[in-house]
Hints:
The structure holds three protein chains of three kinds.
Chain A: H1 3-24, H2 28-52, H3 62-93
Chain B: H1 3-24, H2 28-48, H3 52-76, H4 81-85, H5 91-113, H6 123-128, H7 138-146, H8 148-168, H9 189-211, H10 219-235, H11 247-269, H12 282-306
Helix pairs in contact in B: 1-2, 2-3, 3-10, 3-12, 7-8, 8-11, 8-12, 9-10, 10-12, 11-12
Chain C: H1 17-36, H2 40-66, E1 70-73, E2 84-87, H3 89-109, H4 121-142, H5 146-164, H6 170-201, H7 206-212, H8 217-234, H9 243-249, H10 252-277, H11 283-306, H12 311-326, H13 329-334, H14 344-375, H15 386-389, H16 391-405, H17 411-425, H18 429-454, H19 469-483, H20 507-512, H21 514-527, H22 540-568, H23 571-591
Helix pairs in contact in C: 1-2, 1-4, 2-3, 2-4, 3-4, 3-10, 3-14, 3-19, 4-5, 4-10, 5-6, 5-10, 6-8, 6-9, 7-10, 8-10, 8-23, 9-10, 9-12, 10-14, 11-12, 11-18, 11-23, 12-14, 12-18, 14-16, 14-17, 14-19, 16-18, 16-19, 17-18, 18-21
Amino acid sequence: MSATTVFGLCAAAVMGLGLYGLITNPGPLRKILAFNLLGSGVFLLFGVVARRGAAAGFGGDPVPQALVITGIVVAFSATALAIALLLRLFRVNGSATLRANAPGSAGTEPTGG
Amino acid sequence: MTVAFAFEVGLAALLVAIAAWAIAVRNAFTAVVVFVVYGLLLAIVWVTLSAIDLALTEAAIGSGLTGALLLGAAARLRPTETPSTAECPSAILRLAAALLSATVAAALAAGVLFLPDPTPTLAPAAAANAAATGLGNPITNVLMAFRAMDTMLEKVVLLLALVGAWSIASDRLSGERSDPRRQADPDGVLAFFARLLPPVGIVVGIYILWVGADHPGGAFQAGTILAAMWLLVLMAGLTVAPPMSCRWLRLILVAGPVVFLVVGLGGLWMGAAFLAYPPAFAKPLILAIEVAMTLTIAVTLGLLAGAPEREW
Amino acid sequence: MPYLVPDLHAVTTTNGFLLALSLVVPVVGVLLAFFAGGRHVERIAFATMPLGFAIAAAILVALWRTHGSLVYLLGGWAPPLGVALRADGLSAVMMMTTAMVICAVGVFAYADFRTLGGEARAPLAFWILLLAIWGALNTVFLGGDLFTLYVALELLTFAAVPLVCLDGRAETLQAALRYLLFALFGSALFLVGVTLLYGAYGTLDIVLLSHRINAEPATLIAAALMTAGLLAKTALFPLHLWLPPAHAGAPAAASAVLSALVVKGSFFLVVRLWFDVMPGLPGFAATQLLAALGAAAIVFGSVVALRQERLKLLIAYSTLAQIGYLFLMFPLAFGSGSAQLENSGALTAGILQAVSHATAKAAMFMAAGLIYTALGHDRITGLAGVGRVLPMSVIAFALSGLALIGLPPSGVYLAKGLLLQAAIESEQWWWEVVIQAGAFFTSGYVLLVLAHALAPADAPITLRVPISRIREAAALTLALCSLLLGLVPWGTYLSVPAGTLSNPLALEAMLSALWPIMGGGVLAILLGRWGHRLARVPLREVVIAAIGPARRAALTFGKMFERADGALRQWPAAGLSLMVVAIMFGAAMLMGR
């Protein structure tokens, strides 16, 4: 078992933890946190793949590394948008929850336009 | 089992433990702090995996700016702590979630163990084509030349996240001008650091941008450092962020993608291809794009990370 | 090492630059609109729309002349190192649909999102997000690299989410947050699959992957995760928790775009994944599972739609049902137990359904928006008399409803014929039943709404706001398009097996559509909300005595579905469903190896 495999398994474990947190953690803020954890696990896996592709004098395959950089920025943008929504919801509603208001219906009156 | 390998196993185990802690802890604020620690540890892991650019990006954006954003949100959402614990799913649901997540994690672990050996890699292709741009950093080559489309799209993603976050804020000012949090003590430590650090930070940022052509670094890392310095100044109350209606602000926000598009369309116009660089001018063109990108990224990230704290 | 040889067939074809332009034009629009702000935003948007439409048309023409696909190498770099854009018949058709719907929505939305003096957030945001959705969709339809497609999907989500909560109410903010988080859940799963594929094959280019891919466990796990993630973004049952409140709560123009176009983006990627990246790899069990989820979506979505009180919610649940239709083609395209694409007519049917639904659903939401603006509410039981004051809108709703039911010569009619033919050829009779029965469910809720809208009003209705004829015309145009799609010569772009259908305008074709309408009427009577209409029914006591027991039984059934819907749409249940779907797909694919 090499170092990259160890980190690959670590990435799988972190992803599992992120999945569990995303499903069960109460409140949107904790879910956003769990999503970031899940994302970091995916990036770690990508990094392991990059390290295994070391060749031609580079320490790692540059393509996956570049993709991870893009991914980190996209994940941050997602977090920022989600936090903006969450804080606005808190300010408008006084509470921050994803729970639908009434069971069996999709919520209250929708607008038309 | 060498010392280095033992170190790596220990590091991996510590990472998983800290991640588990972040998920399991009850208090949201603590969870965010643990998450920042996790991010910094992850940056060390990136160094171990010979990905210095990634370590820089992870430390700066992944745990730095994200951490700042989440901390601000956690502080604001403290009043919702008690009611939200009533939202905890039942034990059965949690057990089911644990089982299913474990299954998926096991499948992924199997996928990792079955990765082919020797690994197919694009490193030789990247090395062989590096002469087209004359840059020494292969990651910058991939980001700016080979897969420039992804970078272009990503700039638009950043801008859209900003437009989205801005569109959610209300049209009317809610009159929260005198938030005590925002007026830092002018003789306090925060204001002191906000005067001391930014000049150093700006120099470091410009250096990382410049050196990113041939060594680890580049536009994203530089932009993040500049954004962090701006945030520091904003948080200390030494300056106020311009409103979105300011033309200069909007110009800087679109400068990155616009310059990218202009150069790309120039390539199309000259008969080569969209996003192709003429071999003689590749390096200066890429640097010009990177400078514009750094400015845009700095302002965008600063606005996105600092947004929850103020009206705009 | 063989992996390093670049694909010698990846060469930019003539007119390939059109592909790059189709991405650049909306992005330029977004940047210009953001910078200029104020009243220029609408002008820039209305300048971009005809340009984008022209480019989509030009791509159709170029494709017709090339007799193959259009390819464009971005930056001149060939895959696997670089990224290529590829346009085949499917891409071109979807791009044209997108252009049409966006232009119609733009005309419709002008009245709602006009900047009157100075600058307002909602109009600026709306037009920028609309153009961004267009650019993202074009990238999804043309992208030839899995990571580019991932970034395009994220762009699509970030552009769609703020549209949901443009009015700033708490319910829409909650719906938007739920949408964003679940969509991010899906994209994380998609990205994991992309990672595994790169680790196994060293490339993310679709064509190169299709050459190198084989049925290893890691590949199948990646395929299962990617499919599950994409299904979460497409809101296929049971992963639909976000769709009804999001599509119903958004402003009408936004709902039109969200239902018609945004969900088609991730659906298109499922098609690319299963037909182009790994053709035939998922195997028999997985295709049956996918179509089973689709069938469940049709039944579930239609029944819950019939129980709705509000028109926009009914249309949102009908989107849920129609999304199920899109997935019926998978087992029929691959045949029973074969690893190759057997029946390309089924693929054509799926795309036809996507196009029909896009135009019809956009028209429906537009009509509903006009009705809401005019009446001030959209309670279905309170729609009486609307047919008299807003005839064009009601006709638009009726025509799109009939198009979705499958009245010839609509696209759905053609698609149904192709699917039935494929089902007969591959001897999967159970899908024949589902396809025939599906139309019954669709016509149920369409007839319910029409019955209420065409009923005479109790008191004369006054419009709260005068409705512009242009907006009604936009809705009517799209509805007519969806009804006449069967007459378009699809053979140039999609493969249509020879001798497929008799003349769609023939009499027996018309008659064959009568059955679903009658069956749908029965469903509407049994399950729909009739309010005080029942007081007007002649021979009231007799009728009620006759159908009373049946209706009571149907209602218990319907309420069961509603409760199940409520339970499935709680976050933990939906998250668990996503995991279960992913694991089931993984198991199905590994079994079918």
